[in-house]
Specification:
Arp2/3 complex 21 kDa subunit ARPC3; about 170 residues; mainly alpha; about 0% strand
């Protein structure tokens, strides 16, 4: 019975990932604020990793990373590596060092959003030699980081609800 509930929880997480992938990729469904849209798959991966063990967190981070790469850059690589590493690290930290709490999760996810989106800007804009990088960062990437972080809050509570509802029955 316990394994069935774990599989059910992972299935629900998978459906959630697909729904957010569709929402993120649908044009004009989520409004742009100051030139940036949230990266919902980063939110989903990081909040699932806050509740799960290392191996499931790694696989959900990998799945969200691949889908994020396909949705944003049409190549598999950057987001796959970064989100997988951040999710695995988050799970290790929350299962061994830090207490799982809303405040700690928000602190970690904010830092993770800054790292993931900020490094994307560095690798794909600064290193390619585009001009006007300060303008582009201020007008597009800062709003994307903040918008993604704000979207983490309801997704955190959704995943906490999924995790606790299935955990209580285990």
């Amino acid at each position: 019975m316990q394994k069935k509930l774990i599989v059910l929880r992972y299935f629900v997480y998978g459906i959630e990932i697909l729904i957010f992938y569709i929402l993120q990729g649908t044009p004009n469904l989520i409004p742009e604020i100051c030139g940036g849209k949230p990266v919902l798959l980063i939110c989903t991966a990081l909040t699932v990793a806050a509740f799960e063990k290392e191996v499931p967190a790694l696989f959900f981070g990998l799945t969200c990373g691949v889908l994020c790469d396909l949705a944003i850059s049409n190549t598999i690589g950057y987001f796959t590596i970064v989100i997988t590493a951040l999710c695995c690290l988050e799970s290790i930290i929350f299962n061994s060092i830090m207490v799982k709490s809303f405040l700690n999760t928000m602190l970690y996810t904010f830092c993770s959003c800054v790292v993931a989106i900020g490094l994307y800007f560095v690798f794909f804009y600064i290193f390619k030699g585009y001009g006007n990088i300060v303008y582009y960062f201020v007008n597009h990437y800062i709003s994307r980081i903040i918008y993604t972080f704000i979207c983490i809050i309801p997704i955190y509570f959704l995943n906490m609800l999924i995790f606790t509802q299935v955990r209580e029955k285990e």
